[in-house]
Amino acid sequence: MKPYIKGTTFPTVVDENNTLVNQFQFKAIPNGIFIDEEGTIRLLKEGFKVDNPEYVKAVERLINGEVDKIELDDDAARNEPSDLQFQLAQTKFKLGMEYVKQNRNEATLKIIIQRATS
User: Fold this and answer.
1) By the 8 A CB rule, do 55 and 72 touch?
2) Which among 38, 27, 39, 36 is positioned nearest to 92, based on CA atoms?
């Protein structure tokens, strides 16, 4: 994540315990959740792509105060995951976090890519 947040002026966190994934039942990664100082969710996007110009512009508009909230259209994110899909995503997340702790970056990336495409 570090290369993507270089130069940003707002706090960025990694949900190491998968708390938000569980709450929103995301089945893809990475996810973009932008919360203002009062705790209001201003953007919630499963499968947030930092290299997508539309997404970058949306975040810039939020940061610059041009809009209060952004909704990015994504039909795939609206489909509810089956119990099996959700359990598989949870298992892959846990495996990926273990790889991160062991500094096994290539293995971590492989899990992320598999999770994002499955």
Assistant:
1) yes
2) 27
The per-type count for the chain, helices as H runs and strands as E runs, is 6, 2
* β-strand partners of 69: none
Spatial contact of 61 and 67, defined as CB atoms under 8 Å apart? yes
Chain segment 71-97, per-residue pLDDT in tens: 887 544 455 667 777 777 778 778 878
User: What's the confidence (pLDDT) of residue 112?
Assistant: 62
Please, is 18 exposed, middle or buried when counting C-beta atoms within 10 Å of its C-beta (0-12, 13-18, 19+)?
Answer: middle
Q: What is the DSSP letter of 76?
A: H
Six-digit token pair at 100? Answer: 């991160």
Q: Quote the radius of gyration of the chain (alpha carbons, Å).
A: 15
